Each structure stands twice: as structure tokens, then as C-alpha cells.
Amino acid sequence: MAIERELKLTLPGDLPARDADAIIAHLDALPGAEARGERHLINRYFDTPSLALSQARAALRLRHVSREGHPGQWLQTLKTAGDAGGGLHVRHEWEQAVAGEALELGKLANACDVPGVADMLRTQGAQLSPLFETNFHRRLWRYIAGDGTAVEIAFDRGVVAVEKDAQRHTEPLIELELELLEAPDGDQGGQGERVLHALGNELRQVFPALEANDISKAQRGYRLRERVSDQRGA
Fold first, then answer.
1. SS3 content of the chain, % helix, strand, coil (to 5)
2. At CB < 8 A and 24+ separation, what contacts does 53-56 make?
3. For residues 92 and 112, what is the distance between their CA atoms, to the nearest angstrom?
4. What percent of the chain has pLDDT over 90?
5. Residues 224, 37: contact at Cβ < 8 Å?
6. Per the confidence metrics, is the pTM higher than 0.85?
7. pLDDT in tens, 38-63
8. Per-domain boundaries in the chain
9. CATH class of 2-233
């Protein structure tokens, strides 16, 4: 199990391409930042018909990651209840490579040390099905602060998508994520989180359209699915 610490900053869905390019250029030139290339990520989120995982404040996804010149990789990820405030998300995370385009729930349940969620995967795994997806391109940078704190900067542009009655419903997704990778003291003193906030504040001063956001990609997917269902029922 890992503890994910990530500051999420969102941008309006109608952000002009020139503004997105300006953010990329700024990050390319940011002192302490090293560009790490671009990825294409397709993420399918699973739950039961009764939304048992959502009710347990957990999210389960199957992700395909691809980049030019390299074969794609499939990963399964489980995230459980955490805290979010001021755009900072702190949560438990289990991520595992899988052989192909399918969940390997036994392996994930064995790794998960939250008994209720692990039991749910074992007893209700057969009921899981994909409910929505996020599909986006991600540009990456590794940023090293003056004290040695390491941060991954990810700029995501794409969509959240729900299939309903053979129609695809989407909303734009434009986010900047700052994830704590390593802090000199293991972040026992909270210095890593302070670096995340300092970097986020610096970027927001340069790009005022950036807004701290406590809503995860999974939550956005559930909300879009609910809106689409309500529209169909109206």
C-alpha cells in the first residue's frame, strides 16, 4: 500500500489551446523541472450495479498507458477513502501491473489491507462492470525542490466519458496534478506537502485560471453518469 499525496489544479474546459501551450512552455522552462515526455491514458472505472465501491468511498480502475515507441501497459488501481481539502488529496492506493485487458481481483484483494473493501472485491467481484472512463493525454515533468523534495507534475487534457443507450456523453477534462514522490524526511514533518502548496501557489500566480479542486477524476465520472441517467429519466 502507498499513501498518495497529490495537489489537483483544474482549468476550464474551454481553455484556449494557446493557454495550454503557455502552461507547457512554462513548465518546460521551470527551474528544477525536467520534462519526462507524453503518455496516452485510457482509464475504465468499475463498480457494482448498487455502486458498492462508491458507497465505500473506494475507486477501482483498469488503466492502459501507451507512449510512442513503447508497448502499452495495463495497470489496475484501487484507491480508498482519503481526505481532500484545498486541492490536496491524501488517500490509500494499490497499483499493480496486469497481464492484459482484464482485472485480476484476487491479486488486488490480497494486497488490500482494508478488510471491508478486500472482502467486497472477493464477494462481489463478479458483479463489477465498467461504468465510465477517462481518456486523456498526459505530459510529465519531474520537479526537484531546493530541499530535495521530488514532485511529479502531470498536465492532463482529454475527456470524462459515459456510454448510455449506445450514445457517448463526454465532458472536457483539463487538470494539472502535483504528486509528492519523495521528501527528505519521508514527509514526517509535512515539508513535502508544503512544497506541493508552494509550487501550486507559484503556478496559480502565473496562470490565474488554475483552481484548486477537491473532486477526483472518479468522482467526476460518477457525477457525469448520474447526470446522464437523470436526463434519460426525465
1. 30, 45, 25
2. 53/117, 53/120, 53/128, 54/222, 56/80, 56/81, 56/116, 56/117, 56/120
3. 10
4. 79
5. no
6. yes
7. 999 999 999 999 999 999 889 999 99
8. 2-233
9. mainly beta
